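Audit log entry. Action: structure prediction of a protein-small molecule complex. Ligand: S-adenosylmethionine. The ligand was supplied as SMILES and no pocket hint was given, so placement is left entirely to the predictor. Protonation state taken as written. Sequence taken verbatim from the request; no trimming, no tag removal. Recorded inputs:
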Amino acid sequence: MKQKIEILEQYNDKLSAIYDEATSDRDHPWVAPRKIEELTAPYAKQGCEVLDIGIGTGRSSKPLFKKGCKITGIDISKEMIAEAASKFPEWKIHKQNIEEGFSFLEDKRFDIIIASGALEFVSDIKKVLKNISELLKPSGKICFTYEKLLEESRLQKWKEAELGKGIANPIPELLSFLVYRHTKEEITKIMNDLNLEVLQDEEFTAYHKTVDNIPVIYGIVLAEKK
Ligand SMILES: C[S@@+](CC[C@H](N)C(=O)[O-])C[C@H]1O[C@@H](n2cnc3c(N)ncnc32)[C@H](O)[C@@H]1O
């Protein structure tokens, strides 16, 4: 199924104003940026070039910035970008749908590329990961999360489904864009095909849905360009 890009964009534009508060909620925190920070910490050196795919309000890049990394970001939502830019004017952020490639980055290459909570919205994760891997310097690291396909789950049993499926019925228009899920085996095969060496591969609870407190399970991968 094809992603409904306009609805995805509108949803994130609306979300941007409350994103930081909502994702810091003590009962329902968004854990992915902390996991990205944990796995990339050994490689985050002063002056290293970082690309954040789906940068949002900047939560996933902030720890790397604090360690002296230079941040470039990409996001489809102009309002998310405006939030990030207001807090971090030093960052260079591009408005782009990551499914459409990265030619606007020209010859720029990165030491670390992160994608925290973004790749679940792309219909062809292999193509996007291939394009991302081409932006890495030799021995560069990629660290990304993905939403797991889980047969037993009330929410995550569909390979592709609207964000609201399993919770809301009928699904409101604003939640009708798609989430794409993957097994660990699918992601491992993609890494092998792209010649990326997996250094770490974990599963974690990324957040809980506010409705019925359902846990949402993600995978996180740290890999190196060979
Ligand atoms: C869940 S937020 C994560 C933000 C941040 N990385 C974090 O961890 O807090 C997902 C972000 O990815 C962006 N996004 C989703 N699909 C995208 C696409 N196809 N191209 C570019 N950005 C996208 C959204 O606009 C949103 O800002």
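Audit: result stored. The mean pLDDT is 96. The pocket of S-adenosylmethionine is lined by residues 8, 12, 32-33, 54-56, 59-60, 74-77, 80, 97-99, 116-118, 121-122 (CB under 6 Å).
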